[in-house]
Amino acid sequence: MNLWAAGVAIALLLAACGTGEREAELPVSTGPLAVARITVRWVDEQREEMMTAVAGDKREVTVHLWYPTEFGGTGEPYVPDLPVLAATLGNDRSSAFARVRGHLAAMNARPAAGGPWPVLIASHGSDMLSAQHTVLLQELVSHGFIVAAIDHPHDASAVKLQDQRVVPFAEASWPRLPMPDPSGNPDANSPYALFYRQRVQQRAADVAFALRRLEAENVAGPLAGTMDLQRVGVFGHSVGGVMAGESCRTEPRVKACLNLDGDSGTGPFYLNDDGSSFERPFMMLTKPFNVPDAQLQTWGLTRETWMLNLQKHRDRTFGSVRSDSYLVSIAGANHQSFTDDSLVMSLLRGRSDASIHRRHLELTRQYSLAFFSKYLKQQPAPLLEVPHAPPEVTVQTWRQP
Q1: What is the mean pLDDT of residues 273-294?
Q2: The pLDDT of residue 102
Q3: How far apart are CA 134 and CA 138, in angstroms?
Q4: Using one digit for the tens of pLDDT, what is the confidence trace for 171-204?
Q5: Which region, left, alpha or beta, applies to residue 159 given φ > 0 means left and ψ of -120 to 50 means alpha?
Q6: ∠ CA(37), CA(233), CA(62), 5° rounding?
Q7: Does residue 15 carry a pLDDT above 60?
Q8: pLDDT for the residue numbered 296
Q9: What does the buried/exposed string (b/e) look like for 165-189 if buried means 16 or more CB atoms within 10 Å of the residue's CB?
Q10: For 85-140, how does the pLDDT look when each residue is reduced to its tens digit (9 = 90+)?
Q11: How far is CA 191 from CA 174, 176, 195, in A?
């Protein structure tokens, strides 16, 4: 199943030549609640930072806490700390981020009444920032969730730490991506595959650490009493999406997980040695998976055989989930359609396809909200059923008897 290339997300938010001073206006949230955001930086004294050679260097994460508030914002920056991060991000990317508008989060505002709210933890793709999911994050919060969006050092494009250092994306640490064999899967024991899984495990440990810190924050902190940590979900994009499944597999406090177009090469999440996975609801939002005829000819496979093998792989993987699982495919989408990037790039470059990217992002919001509302709030979600799918969406479901 050659979704391997989706495993490494490279941020494509680069301003094209000749864009001048165009701005990108983000869609507004559809929920009744206003949105606020605060940023915290936490050091895990129990874990060494595996990406540095400095003895005693502890793992640290930057977390942006998005939460419902009664007071709307007036246009806070799209990327927190952008002036500090700009040199690491580079002129093109930081310039593009500076021209994104419509960010409605208020900073450090008082939480809204009506909680406690279910908690979602978000994980970005490689060489990206959690801010590049702003449209989805704000949508979820506007409907009554708190979202802890992690910027993972060495995986994110740039992360500011407590001591003011800025950590760049560790591009040089990634081994070369091997070519897949006729099964569609590269060698699961290749240096790339092993490093990929190591990063997934590190991120899952970040989630477990963040949950411990959120428990403390819920007792004494600016959001004290607002979080229902008995109702926790995890979602992410690309490698962050694979990590969401890993959190469902390894972290008992996580009750539902959502993968936004992430694949490890062997599937959208890792299985146990016996082929089993986890007992929590799972959904993958993805794009259609197509292999060119020339590649099939090289492998000596007919398209019919390829599609049959692909479905068997999906049945084996999604069918291992001992709860409801969904595969939702959006026609015409690309890897960045599940982030703000495709829409933002289109708007900054003055292209005519902005409405298409806006629609893909709208569907991402709708399906993400429906999934977490059903499994963390016990609300009806007819959108998840095949008869209710929009024409550009294909839904496959697996349910345990």
Answers
A1: 92
A2: 76
A3: 6
A4: 999 998 877 666 656 677 889 999 999 999 999 9
A5: beta
A6: 40
A7: no
A8: 86
A9: ebbbbbeeebeebeebeeebbbeee
A10: 999 999 999 999 999 987 767 777 899 999 899 999 999 999 999 999 999 999 99
A11: 9, 8, 6
Percent helix, strand, coil in the chain, to 5, is 35, 20, 45
Residue 78 CB neighbour total at 10 angstroms: 23
Which amino acid, 246? E
Quick one: tokens of 91?
């002129």
Distance of CA 96 to the CA centre of its chain: 21
β-sheet bridge partners, residue 149: 64, 122
If you average pLDDT over every residue of the chain, what do you get?
90
Q: Three-state SS for 159?
A: strand
Burial class of residue 252, CB neighbours in 10 A (0-12, 13-18, 19+):
exposed
Buried b (16+ CB within 10 A) or exposed e, 196-224: bbebbebbbbbbbbbbebbeebbeebebe
Cα pseudo-dihedral 374, 378, 380, 384, rounded to 10: 20
Structure confidence at residue 20 (pLDDT)? 56
- Per-residue model confidence (pLDDT) at position 17: 36
Return the number of other C-beta atoms located less than 10 Å from residue 114's C-beta. Answer: 12
pLDDT higher than threshold 50 for residue 5 = no
Q: Tell me the DSSP string of 208-261.
A: HHHHHHHHHHTTSSTTTT-EEEEEEEEEEETHHHHHHHHHHHH-TT--EEEEES
Q: Which two tokens stand for residue 202?
A: 């590190």
Q: Identify whether the C-beta of residue 247 lies closer than 8 Å to the C-beta of residue 221.
A: no
Question: What average pLDDT does this structure show over 335-354?
Answer: 96
b/e code 137-146 from CB counts within 10 Å (16+ = b): bbbbbbbbbb
Q: Give the integer Cα–Cα distance in Å for 15 and 311.
A: 39
Cβ atoms 36, 106 nearer than 8 A: yes
DSSP, res 27: P
Residue 87 host element (H or E): helix 82-89
